[in-house]
């Protein structure tokens, strides 16, 4: 790739632009829509005729404030807690898988994989009944637990791959240098695994943040309803108005933290995702 | 500083395979011991048993007379240098070296850590690199950081697991002499695992040769070279390795495929009654007959053979003689080659000739052989029939005395420089 010709460069540039357009057009469309006034929604034009922040006002300080802000709080809280628990458990689990030889090791990995490919929609109905019976329906734990089933498997898999490539010698060297098993893990392994743990955490957070099926099925009030589910409950200013503008504004707001996360930790994520590729 | 005693150590894996089998070694305080052997001989396992990374199935491991079998690695106060250095990539060179000090919480003040690390870095010429990360260092520098981590704490002994195998040949030679000098200066007990002949011969006070988990012989390099106990040690030590020729005794002559060799009476005595013996001849026991002084000529025997080709190396040259052993002996030699990690041993004799020798391949040449130095081996048991145990022991004693002297000298010099500095 170092000495690619001009022709090659142009080809790549064209392809990149096409892919970017394809990927970003919906986002741009939503962004434009979020600044439109209700009367402007059906004009069929891409850009609003008059830029207005009425949609943002509506969801942040206006009618829909209660619905949106509480769901935003729910989403952030639930996703963070689910991510945290998943990463802590997965770190310990993946470490054991990478380092120890114990019976059932293969089974743990296979089970994790099986759980992660299990269709969400097929367990949501029994879960709905179960949660209502034991009182977890419409609560934070009621969402955190099913989210763990989504975030844990992928966390275990990514982290196990990560720990496998950290040379065992490092840990043994630390032990010879005077560290306990726990110290060797904390001082020699954890700092090295940090990029991996970080990547995993971000992936897990995305999964929890983006979930819709559990969010809408296992909640009924503002007590636990996350943003993706809450968007479906938006209404227009009157019953004749579509809530499209408000939904767009809310969609933009919930996208911002994700974009920020990715931009801020771009380097860690990339190094985390590619670390397994080339031996350092 | 400590002595380490291995009493009948055994390491058995789950499948019953003994990786280390009944090994006993007494390592004196300040001694430099090399564990050497072909791959899979259990030398690394043995080292890891000493440091505590590998459980001991049976036997006793004593450090300074105290049994430490059940102690965790961190309680044994040993320092180890790993083959791949095992540096912490997220820490600077300084922090890497300081790592063991920081782990011993409360034992060292920050100022003391600074002082010890700077001192160690100075010894190893790492002062300019203290703030760099291991990833940016060259192989030799990484190796030195790994050594720094070992010397910074007052460990009772150093353990090296093939520390130079990842370096290129030139650097390896340099690091080898650095390790040797450092060990003498610090006078610290060291155990060093290698498969490299040169490292084994140059570094060790004593070298332990292992085969399939069993200790074959432990002695000074010279004793191993001159008085090996068996066929395996004789073949493994030395490069190019010792030639083994099948021979039958007739009178005071050994009939070999390359000709008759006249031998002394005591050699006749040990070979008597055996149908066939293996004659072990090191390449340098041969010489171009025309290059040998008349006075020396009497001590050996002269014979004529045809060299297939010669290799001129500048300071000497190697000549090769083909011979055709009978199948029985051939099997034996092949077996031996396999044990030593080599491919099948080609039935040829390697001879070292003077660089000025005019002998060339393809023509019959007159060669001289120093018969005083040859060894006779029992082809069945591999035992060295002509080993002079007393002479061997004398060689090892000599090496031990030399070590004691060197360490004393080094300490004296150290004390003198310290006095000058203060």
Fold and architecture overview:
The complex is a heterodimer of chains A (280) and B (422). Chain A is an all-alpha fold. Chain A has a domain at 65-233: MetI-like (MetI-like fold, Orthogonal Bundle). Chain A is 72% helix and 0% strand. Chain A is built from 12 helices and no strands. In chain A, helix 1 (6-34) crosses helix 11 (244-264), helix 4 (105-117) packs across helix 6 (140-164) and helix 8 (181-210) packs across helix 12 (266-274). The longest helix of chain A is centred in the first third of the chain and has 35 residues, at 65-99. Chain A is globular and about 70 Å long. Mean pLDDT of chain A is 84; it is low at 275-280. Chain B has helices spanning 43-51, 93-103, 110-123, 139-152, 169-186, 197-203, 221-226, 231-236, 265-271, 294-297, 327-339, 389-421; strands at 4-12, 18-27, 32-36, 58-63, 66-67, 78-81, 157-161, 189-194, 206-211, 214-219, 243-250, 253-256, 259-262, 277-281, 286-288, 301-306, 309-312, 316-322, 348-354, 364-369, 375-377. Chain B has a 6-stranded mixed beta sheet, sandwiched between helices. Chain B has a 5-stranded antiparallel beta sheet with strand order 13-12-11-14-21. A 4-stranded antiparallel beta sheet of chain B has the order 2-1-4-5, covered by helices on one side. In chain B, helix 2 packs across helix 3, helix 2 runs parallel beside helix 4 (139-152) and helix 3 crosses helix 4. The longest helix of chain B is centred in the last third of the chain and has 33 residues, at 389-421. The chains are: A mainly alpha (280), B alpha+beta (422). At the A-B interface, helix 7 and helix 8 of A face strand 6 and helix 2 of B.
């Amino acid at each position: 790739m170092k000495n690619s010709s001009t022709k090659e460069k142009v080809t790549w540039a064209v392809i990149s632009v096409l892919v970017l357009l394809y990927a970003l057009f919906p986002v741009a469309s939503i962004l434009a829509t979020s600044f439109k006034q209700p009367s402007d929604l059906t004009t069929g034009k891409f850009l609003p005729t008059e830029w207005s922040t009425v949609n943002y006002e509506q969801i942040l300080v206006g009618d829909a404030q209660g619905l949106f802000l509480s769901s935003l709080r729910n989403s952030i809280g639930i996703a963070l807690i689910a991510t945290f628990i998943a990463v802590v458990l997965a770190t310990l689990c993946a470490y054991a898988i990478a380092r120890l030889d114990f019976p059932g090791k293969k089974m743990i990995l296979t089970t994790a994989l099986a759980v992660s490919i299990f269709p969400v929609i097929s367990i949501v109905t029994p879960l709905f009944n179960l949660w209502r019976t034991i009182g977890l329906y419409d609560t934070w734990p009621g969402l955190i637990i099913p989210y763990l089933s989504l975030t844990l498997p992928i966390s275990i898999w990514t982290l196990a791959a990560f720990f496998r490539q950290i040379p065992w010698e490092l840990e043994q060297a630390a032990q010879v240098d005077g560290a306990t098993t726990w110290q060797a893990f904390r001082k020699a392994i954890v700092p090295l695994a940090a990029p991996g743990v970080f990547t995993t955490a971000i992936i897990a957070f995305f999964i929890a943040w983006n979930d819709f099926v559990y969010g809408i099925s296992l909640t009924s009030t503002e007590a636990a309803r996350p943003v993706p589910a809450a968007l479906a409950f938006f209404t227009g200013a009157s019953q004749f108005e579509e809530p499209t503008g408000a939904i767009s504004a809310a969609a933009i707001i919930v996208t911002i933290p994700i974009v920020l996360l990715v931009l801020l930790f771009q380097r860690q994520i990339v190094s985390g995702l590619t670390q397994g590729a080339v031996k350092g | 500083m400590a002595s380490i005693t291995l009493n009948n150590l055994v390491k058995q894996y789950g499948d019953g395979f003994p990786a280390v089998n009944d090994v006993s070694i007494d390592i004196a305080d300040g001694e430099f011991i090399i564990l050497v052997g072909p791959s899979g001989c259990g030398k690394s396992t043995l080292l890891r048993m000493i440091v505590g990374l590998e459980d001991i199935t049976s036997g006793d491991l004593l450090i300074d007379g105290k049994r430490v079998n059940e102690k965790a690695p961190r309680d044994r106060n040993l320092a180890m240098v790993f083959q791949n250095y095992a540096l912490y990539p997220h820490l600077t060179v300084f922090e890497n070296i300081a790592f063991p000090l920081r782990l011993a919480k409360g034992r060292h003040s920050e100022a003391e850590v600074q002082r010890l690390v700077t001192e160690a870095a100075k010894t190893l010429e790492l002062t300019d690199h203290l703030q760099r990360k291991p990833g940016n260092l060259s192989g030799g520098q990484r190796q030195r950081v790994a050594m720094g981590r070992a010397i910074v704490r007052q460990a009772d002994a150093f353990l090296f697991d093939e520390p130079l195998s990842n370096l290129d040949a030139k650097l390896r030679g340099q690091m080898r002499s650095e390790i040797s000098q450092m060990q003498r200066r610090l006078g610290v007990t060291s155990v060093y695992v290698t498969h490299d002949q040169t490292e084994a011969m140059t570094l060790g006070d004593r070298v332990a040769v292992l085969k399939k988990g069993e200790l074959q012989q432990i002695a000074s390099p010279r004793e191993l070279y001159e008085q090996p106990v068996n066929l395996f040690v004789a073949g493994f030590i030395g490069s190019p390795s010792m030639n083994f020729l099948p021979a039958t005794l007739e009178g005071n002559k050994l009939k070999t495929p390359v000709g008759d060799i006249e031998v002394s009476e005591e050699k006749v005595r040990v070979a008597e009654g055996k149908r066939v013996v293996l004659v072990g001849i090191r390449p340098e026991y041969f010489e171009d007959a025309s290059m040998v002084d008349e006075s020396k000529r009497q001590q050996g025997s002269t014979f004529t053979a045809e060299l297939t080709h010669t290799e001129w190396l500048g300071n000497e040259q190697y000549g090769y003689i083909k011979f055709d052993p009978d199948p029985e002996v051939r099997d034996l030699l092949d077996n031996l080659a396999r044990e030593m990690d080599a491919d099948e041993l080609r039935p040829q004799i390697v001879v070292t000739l003077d660089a000025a020798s005019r002998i060339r391949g393809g023509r019959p040449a007159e060669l001289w052989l120093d018969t005083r130095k040859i060894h006779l081996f029992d082809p069945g048991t591999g035992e060295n029939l002509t080993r002079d145990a007393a002479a061997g022991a004398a060689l090892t004693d000599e090496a031990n005395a030399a070590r004691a002297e060197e360490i004393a000298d080094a300490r004296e010099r150290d004390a003198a420089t310290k006095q000058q500095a203060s």
